[in-house]
Specification:
Layout lengths: L23 H10 L6 E2 L6 E2 L2 H12 L5 E2 L6 E2 L2 H12 L5 E2 L6 E2 L2 H12 L5 E2 L6 E2 L2 H12 L5 E2 L6 E2 L2 H12 L5 E2 L6 E2 L2 H11 L2
Antiparallel strand pairs: 1-2, 3-4, 5-6, 7-8, 9-10, 11-12
């Protein structure tokens, strides 16, 4: 039996490297020199993570939707305190010191900048669907595409109308928006409430001006 660790996404190769690169040539060189570390594959979506504890946090936050840390500004929930802190710094405090030399886009961390260069400017698409030949930059996106588009897997069912969904989060949003009419998002400036997160964030951009 082959006990070899699953192939990691190239994003994972950047996790332990804090070198501040800003252009495609530097990232190309780093891809070739950063050693691959042991990875742990999510049994649900196929994403490869660098640590067993990170995999556990991923399953809890993404698939079981256990997100105990809520942003005090926009109320967006997170599974890890560290992720919440990154969100506050990048979204609300606008702290993005890392600049892409190719397009001048700002990022909150060196790893985010490297991932951006790798996928946007180098246009690396490593994973190809064997059914429709569509390409993806991440293994978990290919996995999700196959399940939803080709296998039509919708394991989450609404108890009220029996509508099917491929993600638990989509089912939750459906129930709250159509059946319970629950407004999960409230603007602290004007006290207006919103059902949809996208509408809430669009409102915040205008209301805070």
């Amino acid at each position: 039996m082959d006990n070899q660790s699953p192939e990691p996404d190239n994003d994972e190769k950047f996790d332990n490297c804090e070198t501040n690169f800003s252009n495609t040539n530097d990232v190309k060189e780093e891809i070739n020199v950063v050693p691959l570390k042991e990875t742990f594959e999510c049994p649900i979506c196929g994403r490869c993570l660098g640590r067993k504890t990170t995999l556990k946090d991923h399953i809890l936050a993404v698939h079981d939707e256990v997100k105990p840390f809520k942003c005090g500004i926009c109320e967006k929930p997170f599974g890890r305190l560290a992720t919440l802190e990154v969100h506050v710094n990048q979204v609300h405090k606008k702290i993005k010191p890392h600049v892409c030399a190719e397009c001048q886009k700002n990022f909150g961390s060196a790893s985010d900048l490297k991932v951006h260069i790798f996928h946007v400017h180098l246009k690396v698409q490593e994973y190809t669907c064997t059914i429709c030949q569509k390409q993806f930059d991440r293994k978990e996106r290919l996995h999700c595409h196959t399940k939803v588009v080709h296998e039509k897997v919708k394991p989450y069912r609404c108890d009220t109308c029996n509508a099917g969904f491929s993600a638990r989060s989509s089912l939750k949003t459906h129930v709250e928006a159509l059946h319970t009419k629950k407004s999960r998002h409230k603007c602290k400036t004007c006290l207006r409430k919103f059902i949809w997160r996208s509408a809430f964030h669009e409102h915040l951009k205008k209301c805070s001006l």
